[in-house]
Every structure is written in C-alpha cells, then in structure tokens.
C-alpha cells in the first residue's frame, strides 16, 4: 500500500514537473520563405537545437519554412503585430524597415568574400543589426547568402544585354536603382510569385544566388545563369524587440550564442550548397556564363555618386564599409 502510494506520489511529481517545465518553456515562432533543403533552413534548425540545449529547454524555436506564414514582408508585419517572434529576411527587404540595411544592397560594394565576412562579423555589421530597435525588431545574426547574378533565357554578358528586359527585383529601392542603372526594367515582386511570373513571361529575368535559383526551381524556366555577381546581400535573422526584451538576460545570451554558432556553421553549409546546386542546375541544362564584370561595375558608379551628394549618412556608412580590411 505504502509502496503504491509512494510510486503514485512520484508519478504525480513527475507529471507535475513535466507540466511545470512545459509551462515555463517559451516557444518562439520563426518564419522564412525557403524550403527545408535550403542551407539557411538547416543553419536555423541547428540554431534552434543549440538554443534548446543552452537554455535547458526553456526556449524553443519552431521554424515555419516555405512562406507558410506569409511573404517576407507579411512576416515582418506579423512580427511587428506580435503574432510571430522571428523572421529570416534579407538586407534588401529590410531596407524598407531600417535604412541602414540599404548599404548592403549596393552593387560591387564588397571586394571579396573575406571583406564581406569582416564587415558582417565586425562592428559595422553589429551596428546595423541594432539599428532597427525603435522600429520594433533587432537583428540577431547574418547568414551567408553568396553573390547574386542575373538569370534569363539568354546569356547576360554586358549590361547592354539587359536592355528591354523586365527584371524581377526584391521590393528594395536599391535593387530597383541598380537594375535601372544597368539598363533593365525593374519589376518588384515577392519571391513566391516569381516562378509563375518567369514561366508566364510576366518578367523576363531575375537575379539571385545559385542555391536559391536552383532550389526554387527557377532553373526549370531560366536556362542561362550569368555570373556577374553584382551584389552580396546578406540574409538576416531578426527578432521582435518585445520578444527579445521578454527573455531573461541568460536566455538572450544563449540566443545570441546559438545564432552566432549557426552563422559560422552556415559558411560551410553555404559553400557545399553552392557547389551542389550548381551541378544540379547544369544537369538540368542550365549554362553558367562568366561575363567580364568591368562594364557592370562602371554602369553602377552613378549610384555611388548620387548617394555621396544626396545621402550623407548612407555615404558615411558606405565609406566605413569600404575601409574595413
Ligand atoms: C534570397 C534570400 C531571400 C529572398 C530572396 C528573394 O533567396 O535568401 O530572403 O527572399 O533572395 O530574391 O526574394
């Protein structure tokens, strides 16, 4: 009898304990627009596991991929309304929410990948992540998103080849200005609408990194990918200010630590994914073209001149980025 009572008590304690800890756990919702086999999903999945480990299960992250909760813009709005906690977006989209991000959308800003890593991993990168606090969110980390290049049904070897083409861009003033400077007609569209838009000829061309081009199956409808590598636009994970401030100091620290580790892990995932998706696209009949970049670089210089005369704050930020070794 005593034994039965004791085990019942232990059982009850265990159930109560489990319930209590389940109650204590905070589950954060994260929205993004890529499929599960995209490197950025894998990196964030790793982050979610790390956060759970570092907080002893107190903080969990549930990831909603494939724009299940809406486009990047809709997700940002849901986050600002408190319906979700985290969004993986990118600097192009974030430009509309916090102007500092526009620096990252300027073509041929970075000298090379190392320069890009030094900037995003250094103090300027950190400053930009913190710049949006008053707009209701803060940047948690950057994720490598390679270089973006044009793709369409013909090779783009010089800016002349873009003449008369409707080029899908992200809803970003810098991306619009860039395509104009290169001679194309920019058409802003949400990412999820692009496959059909290319297929039906609503747009003629688009631009993105190789993994996104391949994993979104745009490679089925655009058979030339021209490596002009005009921008290196980082992916960015952001969290609502309210959610972040609602975490304890330890939990905030754990989230930052896990995010940083996942961003490092992403560098490896990204390189692997770029190679794998390029091979996959080639097998599907995509030709990769290597244009001479000089004419592209020249054509976008007026963008920098315009910033220098009309936007001193952005101009200063651009100079600081350029000065990073
Ligand atoms: C990249 C980026 C996405 C973005 C997409 C786009 O794939 O990772 O965040 O939505 O470009 O071109 O819209």
UniProtKB/TrEMBL annotation:
Gene3D superfamilies noted in UniProt: Bacterial extracellular solute-binding protein, family 7
Signal sequence, renumbered to the chain: 1-24
Keyword Zinc-finger listed: no
Keyword Magnesium part of the UniProt annotation: no
Top-rank lineage group of the source organism: Bacteria
Keyword terms, alphabetized: Receptor, Signal
Entry GO MF terms: carbohydrate binding
Gene Ontology CC: outer membrane-bounded periplasmic space
Any Gene Ontology biological process: transmembrane transport
Matching PANTHER family: DICARBOXYLATE-BINDING PERIPLASMIC PROTEIN (PTHR33376:SF2), PTHR33376
NCBIfam families the record matches: dctP, TRAP_S1
Name assigned to this protein: Tripartite ATP-independent transporter solute receptor, DctP family
